[in-house]
Design brief:
By secondary structure, the protein is mostly helical. It is 79% helix and 0% strand.
Length: 275
C-alpha cells in the first residue's frame, strides 16, 4: 500500500508540475486560447458562408456550421492531448530536468499517468471554453443532443490517442534536434484522413482505407451522431468499441516502445537539455 501511495503521489506531482508551468506562462495560455477560439469560429463560419457562395437556397448554412463546429472541437480536444503527451520529453529538456526525471526511482507508467491525466483535464477545460463561446455566438440549441453520449465517445477516443501519443513521444527522445517536428507529421496525417472538416467519402480510396486506422474517425462520427442526431448512448457502441480496442492495444504497446527508446537514449547519451 505504501508503494502504491508513493506512485500515486508521484503521478500527482507531475500533474502539479504541469499546472505550475501553465501558471508560469499564463500569458501564452491566453494567447493560445484566443487563437483556438478564433480558429474554431473561423472554420465554423465557412458553413454559413457556403450558403451564400453556393447560391443554392437548399443549402443549410447553419447545419454546415454545426458540422464544422463539432469537428473542430473534437479535433481540438484530441490534438491537445496529443501535443501535451508528445511534448513530455521537450518539457523536461527545456526545464533542464530530463536526466533527473528519467533517472528517478519511479515507474514510467507513473510518469505517463500524471502526464496523461493532466492532458485530458487541460484539454477538457480548454474545449469547454471554446464550446461555450460557440454556443453563445451561433445560438446552438443542444436541448435534443445526447451530451452524455458525446462525452463518453470523447473519453473513449482519448484512450487510443493516449497510446498513439506515448509512442510518438519517443521521437523527441531519440532525435533531440528534430523529434518534436516529426510528431507534427503524425498529427497532420491524422487530420487529413479522419474527416474533421468533411465526410470520409470525399477522400480518395487510398485515404479512405487509411482512415479506419485513425481513432479520430470513429470519435468524430460518434460525437456528431450524438450531438446532431441525439443518438442514444447504447447505439454509439459501433463507434466506441473500435477506439477502446485501439486504446487497449496502443497504450501497453506505447509504454513498451517508450521503454526501449528510453534505454537506448540512456545508453547513447541522448539525455541532454535543448534551449
Amino acid at each position: 500500500m505504501s508503494t502504491l501511495t508513493h506512485q500515486l503521489r508521484a503521478s500527482y506531482a507531475f500533474m502539479e508540475r504541469n499546472a505550475n508551468l501553465v501558471k508560469r506562462y499564463w500569458s501564452w495560455e491566453i494567447v493560445w486560447l484566443t487563437y483556438s477560439i478564433a480558429n474554431a469560429l473561423s472554420v465554423s463560419f465557412i458553413g454559413l458562408g457556403m450558403e451564400q457562395i453556393s447560391g443554392n437556397p437548399e443549402v443549410d448554412g447553419r447545419e454546415l456550421a454545426l458540422y464544422l463546429i463539432i469537428g473542430t472541437l473534437v479535433w481540438h480536444f484530441l490534438s491537445v492531448i496529443f501535443y501535451w503527451i508528445t511534448d513530455v520529453i521537450g518539457i523536461e529538456r527545456w526545464e533542464g530536468t530530463i536526466e533527473y526525471t528519467l533517472m528517478a526511482p519511479i515507474h514510467r507508467v507513473t510518469h505517463m499517468a500524471g502526464q496523461t491525466l493532466f492532458a485530458v483535464i487541460y484539454s477538457l477545460l480548454f474545449t469547454s471554453v471554446i464550446l461555450f463561446v460557440a454556443v453563445l455566438l451561433f445560438e446552438i440549441d443542444l436541448s435534443r443532443a445526447n451530451l452524455a453520449g458525446g462525452a463518453i465517445m470523447l473519453l473513449a477516443g482519448s484512450l487510443s490517442f493516449i497510446g498513439i501519443s506515448i509512442t510518438a513521444s519517443t521521437l523527441p527522445l531519440l532525435f533531440p534536434e528534430r523529434g518534436s517536428q516529426m510528431t507534427h507529421v503524425i498529427i497532420a496525417i491524422m487530420l487529413l484522413i479522419s474527416g474533421v472538416y468533411y465526410p470520409i467519402d470525399v477522400l480518395p480510396q487510398v485515404l479512405q482505407k487509411l482512415s479506419v486506422l485513425s481513432p479520430a474517425t470513429y470519435v468524430l462520427v460518434g460525437v456528431r451522431s450524438a450531438l446532431l442526431e441525439g443518438t442514444a448512448t447504447r447505439n454509439l457502441w459501433p463507434y466506441i468499441w473500435p477506439v477502446l480496442l485501439m486504446g487497449v492495444i496502443a497504450i501497453p504497446a506505447g509504454l513498451k516502445i517508450f521503454g526501449w527508446a528510453e534505454r537506448y537514449a540512456k545508453r547513447t547519451g541522448k539525455l541532454h537539455r535543448n534551449g
